[in-house]
Design a protein that fits this description.
The complex is a heterodimer of chains A (169) and B (206).
Chain A: E1 12-14, E2 19-24, E3 28-34, E4 38-44, E5 49-55, H1 73-86, E6 95-100, E7 106-107, H2 116-130, E8 135-140, E9 146-151, E10 157-160, E11 167-168
Parallel strand pairs in A: 1-3, 6-8
Antiparallel strand pairs in A: 2-5, 3-9, 4-5, 4-6, 9-10, 10-11
Helix pairs in contact in A: 1-2
Chain B: H1 8-33, E1 37-47, H2 49-56, E2 62-72, E3 76-83, H3 84-95, H4 107-132, E4 136-138, E5 142-147, H5 148-159, E6 166-175, E7 179-189, H6 193-200
Antiparallel strand pairs in B: 1-6, 2-3, 2-4, 2-5, 3-7, 6-7
The chains are: A alpha+beta (169), B alpha+beta (206).
């Protein structure tokens, strides 16, 4: 990742679990410790406007009381798209990147290993396709936790994993 | 969603349950490694998810985590989380190696940790079970060694328990009074299980 330019003080915006945030250049949107959760970034390169969602589950329809819509792919992704458009983004300019969806645990207990990570990724892909938003890059699957850092000045996403070098997509 | 308010007396009772559970767990560990192990429970409380992360050291903190499902009268998940260094120390303890020998977790080390986690959490749960008369059975352990945030959220999502408060028992184990193994024992119960636990301890359901 390129170091921040002098006089260009990037603001870091933390995106919590089951939450989403919008930021404009030079903001950097960060979400920590994605495991089976998926981070979805949307970017309008003309406005240099970005949005980042930290979703936990694919489908809200299996739950009776939904208190945090951003927890679910099927509610959170439309919310993020809406928020981007409210801030002036054009749907046909939006580009997405996906990070996370890992399988963190190893063991024999199948009931606990439901491949939620993979289902999160598949649901996010399907929803973005439906909305006509191309996915420019992905860093998904595997068994490692990831921190996602989204630079709204150029749309780059950096991925931090413990014991590995920073990866940029 | 959250638990009904527990009175200070009830919280004390839970802390006592934690003490007895850990005492039992430590006895099993000491037998396993054939060494003396001392313990402390500095704290036990109900915490929301965010505070739980903060307590253990932040989203990107390296941790080892062993988790088991509990079936029976008070179903839920138990997990034992050790900080990164303590995880490696635990492997040394089990293998009878000088502390500091293990630097990364290979297959063998991972299965050693799973075994220790299994013994610790299993005897913890069986102590609670004996004390309360509730039927509690544990399943085979799962293991992860990575970022705390990633490990915890994945587990809670898999268990379908995301918005609830969690019973956290902070534990410190001392191996022959020199090596400190810092860990946190978590109990994520399904709705109603805590009420059943309190009722079994002689408190009226409220």
């Amino acid at each position: 990742m390129e170091p921040a330019k002098v006089g260009n003080n990037p603001v870091e915006i933390q995106v919590g679990i089951a939450d989403y945030k919008i930021g404009r250049e030079p903001a950097r949107l960060i979400t920590l410790g994605l495991g089976s959760c998926v981070g979805v970034s949307l970017y309008d390169p003309v406005l240099k406007l970005g949005g980042l969602l930290h979703l936990m589950l694919p489908d809200s329809t299996q739950f009776n009381n939904v208190t945090k819509p951003a927890k679910f792919a099927d509610l959170g992704i439309p919310l993020l798209i809406d928020e981007m458009r409210k801030n002036g983004a054009h749907l046909n300019r939006l580009q997405a990147k996906l990070v996370g969806g890992a399988q963190m645990f190893s063991g024999l207990d199948n009931k606990m290993i439901l491949n939620i990570g993979q289902r999160n990724v598949e649901k996010a892909r399907a929803l973005l396709k439906e909305a006509g938003i191309p996915i420019l890059a992905e860093e998904v699957g595997g068994n490692r936790g990831r921190t996602m850092i989204f630079d709204t000045s150029n749309g780059q996403v950096s991925i931090r994993m413990l014991g590995s070098k920073l990866k940029v997509i | 969603m959250s638990y009904r308010h527990l009175s200070p007396v009830e919280l004390d009772a839970l802390k006592e349950v934690g003490n007895i559970g850990l005492g039992n767990a430590v006895t099993s560990l000491a037998q396993l490694i054939n060494r003396r192990v001392n313990m402390r429970v500095p704290r036990s409380s109900f915490l929301p998810f965010e505070e739980m992360i903060e307590l253990v050291g932040g989203y990107e903190e390296l941790v080892g985590c062993v988790s088991l499902r509990v079936l029976g009268d008070a179903p839920g998940i138990v997990l034992y989380i050790f900080d990164g260094e303590s995880t490696l120390h635990l492997v040394d303890m089990l293998m009878g190696l000088p502390v500091g020998t293990t630097e990364e977790l290979d297959e063998l080390a991972q299965s050693a940790i799973k075994e220790i986690g299994n013994v610790l959490t299993g005897s913890f749960v069986s102590a609670i079970s004996m004390m309360t008369g509730l039927n509690m059975i544990t399943t085979v352990p799962l293991f992860a060694f990575d970022m705390l945030g990633a490990v915890l959220t994945s587990l809670m999502v898999a268990a379908g328990r995301v918005e609830e408060q969690v019973l956290v028992i902070e534990t410190e184990l001392f191996h022959e009074d020199e090596t400190l193994i810092k860990g946190h024992f978590f109990l994520l119960t399904e709705p109603g299980a805590i009420d059943r636990l309190m009722a079994a301890l002689g408190f009226n359901e409220g």
